[in-house]
Write a structure and sequence with these properties.
This protein is of the alpha+beta class. The protein has one domain. The chain has three helices and three strands, in the order βααββα. It has a three-stranded antiparallel β-sheet with strand order 1-3-2. A hairpin with a 2-residue loop joins β2 and β3. InterPro entries: AlpA.
Length: 59
């Protein structure tokens, strides 16, 4: 299992941190993992699955 940093996530998803937070709050994006008091990350497999679903849903 690999954890993505904010920088790595931004390279994959191309959304602003604010937009990602809004999607998370609306349960439309994988939830972040609290790694420490000032550090968060995202599970890479969950993000890739989210991207895969987005690609499958396009017309």
């Amino acid at each position: 299992m690999r954890i993505l940093s904010k920088r790595q996530l931004k390279e994959l998803v191309l959304y602003s941190p604010q937009h990602i937070a809004r999607l998370e709050k609306a349960d439309l994006f994988p939830k972040r993992v609290q790694l420490g008091p000032n550090r968060v990350g995202w599970v890479e497999d969950e993000v890739l699955e989210w991207l895969k679903r987005r690609l499958e849903d396009r017309k």
